[in-house]
Amino acid sequence: MTELSAGHGPRSSDTAAILDLDAVAFGPFSLRSRLLEKDGLPVRLGSRATDILRLLVSRAGEVVPKDEILGYAWSGLSVEEVSLRVHVAELRKVLGDGKDGARYITNIPGRGYCFVAPVRRGERAEVATPASRVPERAAPPPSLPRRLDRMVGREDAVAELAARLLRDRFVTLRGPGGIGKTTVATALAHEMCDSFDGNVHFLEFGPLKDAALVASTVAAALGLVVHHDDPSASIVNFLRGRRLLLVLDSCEHVIEEVARLAENIYRAAPGIVILATSRESLLVEGEQIFELVSLPGPPQGTRLSAGEVLAYPAVRLFVDRAVAAGHRDDITDEDAEVLARICGKLDGIALAIELAAARVGLYGLREMAALLDNRLQLEWRGRRTAPPRQQTLGATLDWSFGLIGESERIVFQRLAVFAGHFTLRGAIAIAAGAAMPEDRVVEALEQLVVKSLVSTQPDGASRRYRLLDATRAYALQKLADGGQLAEIAHRHALYVQCTLEAGMRDKEGSNHASRLQERASLLADARAALQWAYANDEGAGLRVPLAGSCTRLFVELNLLNEARIWSDRALAMLDEADRGGAWELELQSTLGHALMFTERNSEQAEAALRRGLEIAEALSDHANTFRLLSRLNMFYRRTGRYRHLLPTALHAERIARVIGDTAGIAGSKALLGVSYHLAGDQAAAQAHLDQGLRDDAALRGTQPGHFAYSRTPQIPLARVLWLRGFPDRALECIRPLVGASAPHDVVMHCIALCWSASVFGWLGDWSSVEAMIGRLAAHASMHGLGPYEAVATGFRAQSMIARGEIADGVDLLRSALPRLRADRYELYASAFAADLSRGLVTLGQLTEGIQVLHETILRVEQEGGAFDMPELLRLRGELEAHGGNPDAAEADLVASISLSEQQGALSWRLRAEMSLARLRVRQRVQNPLEQLAQTYARFTEGFETADLIAARRMLNEPAAR
Fold first, then answer.
1. Cα-flanking dihedrals φ and ψ of residue 58, to 5°?
2. Is the pLDDT of residue 815 over 50?
3. What pLDDT is attached to residue 817?
4. Which residue in 155, 312, 466, 694 has the most C-beta neighbors within 10 A?
5. Nearest CA to 147 among 84, 195, 100, 213?
6. Rounded CA separation 706/787 (Å)
7. Contact predicate 101/137, CB 8 Å
8. How far is CA 344 from each of CA 500, 687, 836, rounded to the nearest angstrom?
9. In sequence order, which ranges of 784-929 are alpha helices (DSSP H)?
10. Residue 385, exposed/middle/buried by CB under 10 A (0-12, 13-18, 19+)?
11. CB 790 within 8 A of CB 819
12. Percent of the chain residues past pLDDT 70, beyond the cut
C-alpha cells in the first residue's frame, strides 16, 4: 500500500484520491481532507493525530503496524513508540471511543492499530437528531451488576475477550485480586447482552462461604428449584439446548465445585458460553485462560510530558478517579513525574490505584506521593517475594485505613460483617451504638463511599452498599484483632433474624413483591448468620429464632434442602421455653413440607406437620393453621390416604372464613374441590371448584409466603368435568394449563402436566399424552423432582400399552410402581397398577393380572375408597369375564355402575355399561344394550371422543340388538 500524505512526506495519488473524496464518514463523524467534523461541526484535532486517523481510516479493517504509522506521521524523524500512544490516546478521546458502546480504534498487542468502525465513503455523516442518535439496546437482565460509567484501560481487553468467548466458549479471566476482573467481566456481560438476546446470567460467588452451595446458587439464579443436595444434573439438563452467557465471578474460594460444574456444562451444553473470573485456573476440560495483567504504567526514571504520561492506562485511571474525588483536571508536565512515580508504586493494580486516587483531593498529588512512599517503606519493603498483587493491595488497604477518621474506622470494620449488599438501614443497625449515634454512621458511610472503601449502586429509589471482597477480608481481620468480631457478628445475626421475621408478618399489598425481593437479597447474610450462630457459643441464644426466620426464606426461594437441614438442626436444640411456641411452629411446618418433597412422604414429615398444626391451633394462628392443613392435605393426597382429605379441607375452609381473606377463601374452595374429587364426589367437587374460580384473580395475585399461595382450581376441575360427562369442557379447561397459563410454581406445574395427561388419556388422545409426558420428564429432571420422573415413566408405559406395545409397557410399569411405593407416593399408583394388570392379561398372565388388580382395590378400600374405584371394579369385572367367571364379572360391573352413579361420574358409568353390555351380549340376555343407550343419551357433548365413539358403534351394531 502506498503512503498517504501527512504534510510531512511523500504522497500517493491513489490513496489521496480515497481520502480526498467529498467525505469519508463513520458514526457521527465526517473526515474531509484534513477536516474532522462531528454532526456537521468542526472538531479540534492535532496535526499528527489527524495524520494517524487518515491512515487508519484509509485502511479500515486492517491492522496497520506501529512502525508504519510512526514512519508516516513522523516522516524523517526518530521518535519512540510512546509518542504514538499519546496521539492515539488523544484521538480516542476526541472520538469518544468506548462511550455508549462506540468503538473506533483497537490496539492489537505486538502488531499495531486497527480502525474497526464501519466506514462510508463518498458521503458525509448525517447530523443525528436527539431522538435517534444511538440505536436502542436491550435492557440488561436484573442479575447483571451495573457497569461503571467509565472504564479505563480495559477496552481492548473487553474486545479481545468477547472474540475469544465466541470462539472458545469457555474462558477464565485470571488475575490477581483487585486488578479489575469483575469490572471487565461486568463490562463484557453488558457488551454481549445483545449478542445473547439478553440471556446473560451473572453469578457472584464472593459472598458464598460454603462450596457445597455452588450448584444450588447457580440453580436458584437460573430459576430452578433445589430439592436435593446436588442439583448439578438438573442444571446441565436445563442448559442443554439453550444459548446464553454464564458469568461465574470470584471463583477462587469455591474453585473445586465451580470447576466441576463448569466442565459438565461445557461438555453437555454446547450452546452455553462460560466466562469465569478467578485468581487461579480452574484446570478443567475446555478452559482457555485470558490473563488480565496489570494496567500498563509509564517507565520509571524517564522524563515524560503530561500528554505522554496520560497515554498509559494506569495514569489515566488514577487521574480520572482523582478528578472525580476533587483534584484539579489540568495535569501539567511537572505533575507527570509524580504521577509516574505513584503509579509505579501501585504496580498497576486497579483497586490500589482507585483507593489512592480517591485521597488526592484531600492531600494533593505530591503529598500523596510522599505518604505513599513512607507507607511503602514501613509495610511493603522486604515482602516482594510474596505475590505482588496481594501485598500491594493489602498495603494499600492498610494505608487507606490509616488515613480515615476514628468513626469511619469503626463503621468500616463493622460493615465487613455483611456477606453481600446492604442497605442504609442495615448499616445503621450494625454500626450504630451508644458511642456511635446514627447520624455519625450515616456520615461515616458517606465518607467511606467517597473514599472508595465502600462501593454503592442504585436500587430503585434507594441505594445498596457493599465492601469489595478484599476490602471486606481486611476489615474483618481488623475487627477480629480489636476483639469485636463476636459482638458485631451477634448483632448481624440479630439484624438478619429481625428483618426476616418482620417480613414474615407482612400482609399482602402493593409493595409486597418489593418486600419479597428485599428478603431474597438477604440470602447470603442469612447463610452467613446461621453458620456463625451454630459455630459459636455467643450465638446460642439466636439459633432457634434465626433458623425459624431463615428457613421461611429458604422455602420461599425453593431451597428446600437447606430449609430441611436448618429446621432439623434447630428443632434438635429446642429448650422448654421454645416448645409449643411460634418458632417451633415455624420449624415443624418447614421440616414437614421440606421432607415431603426432598426425601419422601415419610412418617417423620407427617409428624412434623401434625405437631405444627397442634401448635398453630393452640396459638390461634389462623394463617399457619390454614397453611399446615393445606400441607397435610397434600401429604394425604400423595400417600393415597383419601379418608383424611375432607376433614382437613373442611377445617381449612372454616379457618379461611375466620381470616376473611378473599384469596384464602378461594383457596379453601380449591382444596375442598380436589378433596371431594379424589374422595369420589364429583358433583360436590365441581361445585366447590366453580366457587374457587370466581376469585381466581385473587388467587393468582398471591405471592410466596401467603397462606393460600399456589392453589389452582383449574387443575382438578378438568378431571372433574370429564368424569361428570363433559369431555369438551374438560379439554377447554386443560389447554390454558399446559399453555400460556401454566402455573409458575414448579410443583404445581408438574401436577398440571400429570393431571392433564390423565385427561388426555381418558379422551383417547395418546399423542397429547406423550407430549405431556415429554414435558413432565424434562421438567422433573430439570428441578430434581424424582417422584415425578417415576410418574412420567408410568404415563409413558400407559401410552405404550394403549398403542399395543404391551411387553415394553409392562416392563416400564414394573420399574415405576416400586419407585412410587418406596416414596409412599400412591396418588397415581392405582391407575398404573390397573394398566399393569391389563397388560399382564394381554400377555397371557391372567392370574397375576387379576391378583395385581385385586391387591390394588383392597389397598384403596382400606383408605376409604377413591374416585377411580368404579374403573378398578370395571377392569376387574372384565378380567373375571376373560377368565371364565361371568357371575363375579357381572357383580363387579354392576357394583361399578352403582358406584359411578353415586359418585356423579357419568363417564365411568358409560365405560361400565359398555363392559356389562358386552358381557350380556355373550350371555344372550334380552335387550343387552338398553341401559347403555339410556346412559349414552345423558351426554350432551364429547361425541367425537374415544368412549362415546365406541358406545355409539356398539349401539349401531345389528348383532348386538
1. -65, -25
2. yes
3. 92
4. 312
5. 100
6. 26
7. yes
8. 48, 80, 79
9. 786-802, 806-822, 829-842, 846-862, 869-882, 886-903, 906-922
10. exposed
11. yes
12. 87
* Mean pLDDT, range 196-216, rounded to an integer: 87
Reported as a single tens digit per residue, the pLDDT across 859-901 is 998 887 789 999 999 999 999 999 999 999 999 999 999 999 9
Q: Tell me the pairing of strands 288-291 and 170-174.
A: parallel
d(CA 479, CA 468): 16
Separation of alpha carbons 293 and 180, rounded Å: 9
Partner residues linked to 105 by β-bridges: 115
Surface-to-core class of residue 80, CB atoms within 10 Å of its CB (0-12 exposed, 13-18 middle, 19+ buried): exposed
Q: Which three cell numbers stand for residue 887?
A: 357371575
What lies within 8 Å, CB to CB, of 1 at 6+ separation is 15, 59
Q: Residue 5's pLDDT is what?
A: 32
Residue 707 pLDDT class (50, 70, 90 cuts): low
Given a cut of 90, is residue 616 above it in pLDDT? yes
SS3 of residue 873 by DSSP: helix
Grid cell in block for residue 211? 462450596
DSSP labels for 547-588? HHHHHHHHHHTTBHHHHHHHHHHHHTT--TTTTTSHHHHHHH
137: which strand partners?
none
pTM above 0.85, yes or no: no
CA gap 315, 339 in Å, rounded: 7
Span 638-662, pLDDT tens digits: 999 999 999 999 999 999 999 998 8
Q: Which ranges in 30-137 belong to alpha helices (H)? A: 47-58, 66-73, 81-95
What amino acid occupies position 603?
E
Mean pLDDT computed over 943-956: 94
Enter the C-alpha cell of residue 787: 417422584
pLDDT at 226: 65
Task: Pick the most confident of 83-92, 168-177, 716-725.
Answer: 716-725
Neighbours of 804 (CB within 10 A): 8
pLDDT digits (tens, 9 = 90+) for 343-362: 887 777 787 788 778 778 77
Average pLDDT in the chain: 84
DSSP 431-478: H-BTTB-HHHHHHHHHHHHHTTSSEEEEETTEEEEE--HHHHHHHHHH
- Report residue 878 as a C-alpha cell: 372384565
Band of pLDDT at residue 786, cut at 50, 70 and 90: confident
State the number of CA atoms in the 13 A half-sphere of 349 facing the CB: 23
- Which residue matches cell numbers 437482565? 141
| Dist. CA 741–CA 242, nearest whole Å | 22
Cell for 834? 390397573
DSSP class of 507: P
946: left (phi over 0), alpha (psi -120 to 50) or beta: alpha
Helix (H, G, I), strand (E, B) or coil at 121: strand
* pLDDT value, residue 723: 97
Please list the alpha-helical segments (H only) found in 74-144: 81-95
Strand-pairing partners, residue 35, are 32
CA-to-CA distance for 781 and 214, rounded, in angstroms? Answer: 19
Do residues 351 and 178 touch, judged by C-beta distance below 8 A?
yes
CA atoms of 495 and 14, how far apart (whole Å): 74
Q: In which band, very low, low, confident or very high, does the pLDDT at 445 lie, cut at 50, 70 and 90?
A: very high
Give per-residue burial for 569-601: e unless 16+ CB within 10 Å, then b.
bbbeebeeebeebbbbbbbbbbbbbbbbbbbbb
Closest-CA residue to 909 (of 683, 717, 724, 678) = 724
Residue type at position 479: L
Which residues lie below 8 Å from residue 67, measured CB to CB, with a gap of 6+?
none
Q: How far is the C-alpha of 472 from the C-alpha of 953, rounded, in Å?
A: 79
Dist CA 46 CA 89 (whole Å): 12
Closest by CA position to 853, among listed 834, 869, 826: 834
